[in-house]
């Protein structure tokens, strides 16, 4: 069986180990000079990702493909020139340290609030159904940032959905032009792409509607085709959350059938990997949310493995080497993503390899605007012997 520290051929890309740093929102962007700039990646973010270039693969925090997809304040985009210049700082720094980095692309759909959308427009969605009980990081009536209930979305027209495919393709082209090695499409966690795929939520009657499997997954497949055309086969991954209920997603009785169909179709389209995550369960809002391991049935994953020739990434609750290696040993997964451990351990791969203790970050600093505090100020591990020599 492969080791967590063995190299891996991810499509045309050689990665140095099987440890993945997954997308994690950290709200450290800079404000743009123009309202249309949106939130901009910066040198601090470049330092953060560069510090963690020991991962076999870094997948960045999600980036908005368009202003209408901006669901959370202080999260970056990839649609303006200023944002592209900011991301170039990030890719240059990661590549300087020999890392491989993909950009996660998203549109949040109904998970948005008018206070951070252009002209205070309503969020857009697959239907007009509001995500009852869910909230996003936006401006309140007093102008202060906080967790606001999402608003009722305006359903996208058929023509707008088709145009959105081009928006994703343009975002992928922007990512390629600033040096990313590939992109990941966020089709999980109740955001726009998953909103289309859910057979209960998607009650549309057009060609993107919920009447058939092909129609419900059409938007994803059209986006994949367009983005693969920009980047090439083997450089586009897709994140999925089968059976997930985050962001008020209704339980889908066709979840298993949809997952297997999507896996098979992604294989035909040259997707590099499928990134599967355990369910994120909210405890009030993003700041207090926690991961609860929710293992997918191995029989289902075996079926998915049979129809998808690319790689599988598992994410959610991995905190130590033994559990990660045991997962690799099942033969059902190729790469393991460590989320929160990467926050406080920029040298995570070395710590796992040598059995060194892992540091833990203060959760109160996850989404702060305190610059490097809780972000880039974590030291690499020093053994007692190394520390004595340094002293």
Task: Please characterize this protein's 3D structure.
- By secondary structure, the protein is of the alpha/beta class.
- 31% of the residues lie in helices and 18% in strands.
- The chain has twelve helices and 18 strands.
- Strands 3-6-7-12-13-14-17-18 form an eight-stranded parallel beta barrel, surrounded by five helices.
- Mean pLDDT is 91; it is low at 279-293.
Give the number of DSSP strands. 18
Characterize the overall form. Answer: globular
Structural class: alpha/beta
Mean pLDDT: 91
Give a short account of the largest sheet.
Answer: 8 strands, parallel, barrel
What is the count of DSSP helices, taking H or I runs of 4+ residues? 12
Residues in helices, as a percent range: 25-40%
Strand arrangement within the widest β-sheet reads 3-6-7-12-13-14-17-18
Q: How much beta, percentage-wise?
A: 15-25%
- As residue ranges, the low-confidence spans are 279-293
Radius of gyration: 20 Å
Termini Cα gap: 41 Å
SSE string = EEEEEHEHEEEEEHEHHHEHEEEHEHEHHH
Features:
single chain; 391 residues; alpha/beta; 8-stranded parallel beta barrel; two-stranded antiparallel ribbon
Task: Tell me the layout of helices and strands.
Blueprint: E1 8-10, E2 13-15, E3 19-21, E4 30-31, E5 39-40, H1 43-51, E6 57-64, H2 81-96, E7 101-106, E8 124-125, E9 135-139, E10 145-149, E11 154-155, H3 158-177, E12 182-187, H4 192-197, H5 213-216, H6 218-231, E13 236-240, H7 255-268, E14 273-277, E15 280-281, E16 290-291, H8 298-307, E17 311-315, H9 321-329, E18 335-337, H10 341-344, H11 348-354, H12 384-390
Parallel strand pairs: 3-6, 3-18, 6-7, 7-12, 8-11, 12-13, 13-14, 14-17, 17-18
Antiparallel strand pairs: 1-2, 4-5, 9-10, 15-16
């Amino acid at each position: 069986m492969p080791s967590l520290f063995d190299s891996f051929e991810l499509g045309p890309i050689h990665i140095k180990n099987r440890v993945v740093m997954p997308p994690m929102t950290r709200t450290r962007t800079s404000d743009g000079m123009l309202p249309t700039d949106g939130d901009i990646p910066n040198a601090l973010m470049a330092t953060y990702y560069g510090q963690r270039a020991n991962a076999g693969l870094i997948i960045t925090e999600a980036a908005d493909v368009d202003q209408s997809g901006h669901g959370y304040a202080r999260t970056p985009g990839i649609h303006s020139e200023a944002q592209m210049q900011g991301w170039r700082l990030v890719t240059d720094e990661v590549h300087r340290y020999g890392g491989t980095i993909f950009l996660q692309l998203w549109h949040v759909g109904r998970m948005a609030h008018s206070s951070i959308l252009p002209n205070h427009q309503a969020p857009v969605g697959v239907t007009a159904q509001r995500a009852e009980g869910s909230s996003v990081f936006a401006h309140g009536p007093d102008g202060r940032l906080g967790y606001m209930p999402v608003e009722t979305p305006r359903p996208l027209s058929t023509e707008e959905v088709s145009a959105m495919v081009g928006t994703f393709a343009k975002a992928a082209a922007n990512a390629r032009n600033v040096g990313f090695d590939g992109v990941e499409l966020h089709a999980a966690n109740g955001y726009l792409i998953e909103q289309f795929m859910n057979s209960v939520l998607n009650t549309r009657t057009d060609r993107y509607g919920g009447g058939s499997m092909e129609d419900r997954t059409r938007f994803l497949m059209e986006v994949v085709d367009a983005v693969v055309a920009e980047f090439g086969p083997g450089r586009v991954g897709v994140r999925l959350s089968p059976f997930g209920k985050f962001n008020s997603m209704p339980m889908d009785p066709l979840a298993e059938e949809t997952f297997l169909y999507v896996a098979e179709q992604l294989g035909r389209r040259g997707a590099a990997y499928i990134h599967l995550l355990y369910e994120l369960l909210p405890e009030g809002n993003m700041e207090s949310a926690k991961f609860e391991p929710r293992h997918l049935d191995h029989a289902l994953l075996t079926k998915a493995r049979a129809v998808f020739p690319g790689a599988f990434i598992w994410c959610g609750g991995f905190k130590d080497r033994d559990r990660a290696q045991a997962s690799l040993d099942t033969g059902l997964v190729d790469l393991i993503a460590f989320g929160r451990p990467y926050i406080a351990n920029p040298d995570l791969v070395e710590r796992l390899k040598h059995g060194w203790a892992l540091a833990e970050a203060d959760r109160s600093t996850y989404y702060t605007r305190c610059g490097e505090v809780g972000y880039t100020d974590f030291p690499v591990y020093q053994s007692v012997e190394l520390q004595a020599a340094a002293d």
